[in-house]
Amino acid sequence: QVQLVESGGGLVQAGGSLRLSCAASGRTFSRLTMGWFRQAPGKERDFVSAINWTGGSTYYADSVKGRFTISRDNAKNTVSLQMNSLKPEDTALYYCAGRLFGGTSSLRMDYRYWGQGTQVTVSS
Question: pLDDT (tens digit, 9 = 90+) per residue, 27-44?
Answer without folding.
Answer: 788 899 999 999 999 999
